[in-house]
Amino acid sequence: MSNVTKATVATTILASAVLLSGCGLFTGEEKNKIDPPDVSLVDSPSKLEGDPVETTAEENKESEEASVKTELYLIDSSGYVVPQTLELPSTQGGGVAAQSLKYLVEDGPISNVLPSGFRAVLPAGTEVSVDIKDGTAVVDFSKEFKNYKKEDELKILQAVTWTLTQFDSVQTVKLKLNGTELKQMPVNGTPVQEGLSRASGINLDTSGVNDISQSKALTVYYIGGEEGNYYYVPITKRVNETDVDNVTAVVQELAKGPSHFSGLQSIVMSDVELLDEPQLADGMVTLNFNESILNSFKEKKVSQQVLDALVLSLTEQKGIERVELKVDGNADLLKEDGKPLSEPVSRPAKVNTGSF
Q: For the GerMN domain, which residue ranges apply (predicted)?
């Protein structure tokens, strides 16, 4: 089979759905920016009744500031903890971090915006307060927090940690129950670390190693969902400690794909390889791939989904903020839409902003 045919067949299942829909999973801003909302809110009942009311530029600005895009880590129908970016109303007190956890409570405000096929992670009736100081978010749950199923225990830890650490002001998380610090979870006894962080991983997959103590964790992004509703799922895999550097290992795991029984898929072709060692400087990693990274050899195009998976996965590594791609040493590449891929790509501000 020719290289052109091979690339086309490999991307048809998932990429064609994206090309037809035109929907993106990311916002286009860098991480330290807040995206403006896509809709404005009604300011008063008078604007619902009678003749239309013209709004000033100042009123429009206030309306835009009345909501904020926020990643909520919810549980999908396959049991994975998955980020979903939703528009949440702005808060007058307690901050967006505290509000994000309130939207993780079953039968709470999430009920009105819960994506199809997802469920909240915290038990109904749970009340939450969050105090952030010196990079640590201290979360205090009410007694209703104990009313969860034991199989959800790790998912709760992951969802709370990853939801809060999306904010620049939070690096670690501590948990309390009715004012008392938790040393272990109340239902199944899972130990709670002194400071929970993303280093603990998410959707853990240990199937690739025999000795966990001689392995290291890497978080990569595969594709979950179904046609018309695909989304990115972070998976923390274990790879042998003595193997290649972390960047190369991430590329290899994307090409290798998820576990056969995971129900997930990878858009990166299995024969994608790096031709040189990754070069890391000033927060940017430069990667030189073979032609299998292209979804159009003739035009030297890189599919948006391949680019997304690479950037999401690589920027989970400490010190990597941007990704630069080359193919056979050539940086003259195109994006899927035909625009030049002339600049390094930064991690998007938010993940899974819409299905594809």
A: 97-186, 247-336
Q: How far apart are CA 310 and CA 295, in angstroms?
A: 14
Task: Look at the block and give the residue holding tokens 């890497």.
Answer: 218
| Cβ partners under 8 Å of residue 174, min gap 6 | 136, 137, 138, 139, 181, 194, 195, 196
Closest CA to 167 of 95, 114, 221: 95
- Residue 216 · residue 246 · CB < 8 Å: yes
Residue pLDDT, tens place only, 224-276? 999 889 999 999 999 988 778 999 999 999 999 999 999 999 999 999 999 99
Q: Report pTM.
A: 0.82
Q: CA-to-CA distance for 72 and 166, rounded, in angstroms?
A: 9
